Amino acid sequence: MSGDAAGGMFAFDGTPVPFQPGQSVGAALAASGVTAWRTTRGAGEPRGLFCGIGVCYDCLLTVDGLRSQRACVTPAGAGQDVRSDDPGAPLASPTTTDGGERR
Amino acid sequence: MSGTVFDLAVVGAGPAGLSAAVVAAETGLRVALIDAGTQTGGQYWRHPDEHHLDAFAQPEHTGHHHWGHYRDLRDRLRRQVAAGRVDHRAGRQVWRTDGPGDAAAFLLRTTAVAGRDAVSPDERAIRARRVVLAPGAYDRQLPLPGWTLPGVMAAGGVQAMLKANQVRAGRRAVVAGTGPFLLSVAAGLARAGVEVVAVCEANALSRWAATPVRALQEPGKLLEGAGYAATFLRERIPLRTRSVVTRISGDGRVSHVTIGRVDAAGRVRLGSERTVEADLVALGWGFTPQLELVVGIGARTRVDVDGSLVAVVDDDQRTSVPGVYAAGEATGIGGAVQSCAEGELAALAAAIDAGFGVPSARARGLRRRIARGRRFAVGMHRASPIPAAWSTWLEDDTLVCRCEEVPVSAVRRTVGDLAADDARDVRVTARPGMGMCQGRVCGFALSCLVSEQTGRPAGSADLEPLVRRPVGTPIRVADIAALAPAAAPVAPADPDDPVAPAGVAPADLAALGKESS
Question: Pick from A1, A36, A58: which is nearest to B168 by CB?
């Protein structure tokens, strides 16, 4: 049930991730065994999918330079540049890399 | 298209909204159907991309109930869309609805769910003489130690991954909380090849015995239950009643789950705890109706049997605001069959109110079905309550609010030392519910914790402020900047007029700044 080459690939922090057409970015990441792609502002804890349906905003990441996109409701697309998100980073930065301060 | 005033706008394309849109259009109304999903079905009928079904290993109906009914609704909707009677706006969320005022039409402002909004502000605002709100619901959550670890998900989210993406969110799962939905999720996981280590149902199944008549009135539900029982036996899924997850642990993601037996009040029995290995935890404590738009438009609410804030509706799904109807989970959690009936009835009521002819027998039949479904739902809520002593599972540093990382100790200190005496006070002081999700996830638990400490049960006056938001869903600043063209005022604004030309009250913008800062 995991993704294969039929859909395509997007890049997650530079690493290729396969997806089926119509899958969400979050689902494709989960299928590839990635469970966290954001760190919290306060304690720097890792977060990924929680509600899975667009309500909780825990799964935010950056898609093609657009920040704060919900991984669970963002359709995966071939060639997307998906990056882990750090909501605490300055807004001036169009894309951010992982905060790197995981405890 | 921007000048179009629809007869009816339906918000949500799940069982209730989809039924409402189809029936309204078939009755002769011109309908706008607005939905966050890219395709219809809502959370209940979430399914793989209809344009690429061959790319998925399993057929689109895998794991679904009442799929035939959905397919029928979908076909009927397609015919209405093709005939130009329904304008389906997919992938859009309504973030604000303004009352008709002098314009005789409601104005629904929408935003793109994903990506940049390429549609012009005028094109994405929808005007309609009547509105059916069918916003649905999402998993209700209670905090517990370790629930913020990656690998912990809402039960509905786990199922959405299975249904829409055909992706397993883990390999070894614990499913926990209360209510029949847990059985559905566990069965789906097992069928997808996930090892379900335990299903922890906090309540005793004997609670269902108190409502046998209600269960017998809904034979479909009994059959569904029998189906789960068979799956559980076949897949050897251990169902543990009066059991809860007391702690989730792991280094950066879930690795271990501690399970304990509880008494009738929900207190963990001494010495009953044991720890199992798992990489996925699915949590669900019933559902939270999505009430922002209901409260935002000024419709009356009440607290339902399960403690949820729901819309008050009359026998025909009319809310207290003329021209606004509510259907589905927003009127009280009752499941998909109930939601379909409510959606149909709301559409008929809207058609009648708009002067269209509707056979009265059809509405009468729906009213009877809805009353019966409601009796079953009340029985279900009574059989699956939130355990009274759930907060005894918490530790001081357990986060109540995931977004703002507010621990339970801060909530209790705010009530105890700072004398905050309702959930709203605590919210603005200690900041739970002030992050991105705006209290959608923690609002219920927060109100419970505050009630527990103040000794005052939460009424709708306590719960409403937790969902009253001038902006119903987080939006980009560009959407606010785009407000002016959307309203297209004809007369110059009076400087003393509290409503700016853009149709936004300055007080609302001030409140917005306060709530999201």
Answer: A1
Structure tokens at B120: 């012009």
Output the pTM of the full model.
Answer: 0.91
Instruction: Using the structure block, give the residue that is written with the tokens 């922090």.
Output: A13
Residue B368 within any structural domain of the chain = no
Domain extent, residue B55, equals 5-137+288-358
Contact B97, B107 (CB under 8 A): yes
Are the C-beta atoms of B343 and B335 separated by less than 8 Å?
no
A75 touches chain B (CB under 8 A): yes
Minimal Cβ distance to B252: which of A27, A28, A102: A102
Cβ–Cβ below 8 Å for B167 and A102: no
ipTM: 0.91
- What domain count does chain B have? 4
Return the H-helix or E-strand segment holding B26.
helix B15-27
Tens of pLDDT along B16-48? Answer: 999 999 999 999 999 999 999 999 999 999 999
The tokens for B177 are 């909380």
**Residues of chain A contacting B167 with CB distance shorter than 8 Å:** 1-3, 23, 27-28, 30-31
> Can you give B294-353 as a three-state secondary structure string?
HHHCCCCEEECCCCCEEECCCCCCECCCCCEEECHHHHCCCCHHHHHHHHHHHHHHHHHH
In this structure, what CATH number is given to the domain that contains residue B98?
Answer: 3.50.50.60
**Inter-axis angle of helices B219-235 and B181-191, to 10 degrees?**
40
* Residue-wise pLDDT tens digits, B138-150: 999 999 999 999 9
For residue B364, what pLDDT is reported?
97
Partners of B148 on chain A (C-beta within 8 Å) are 45, 47
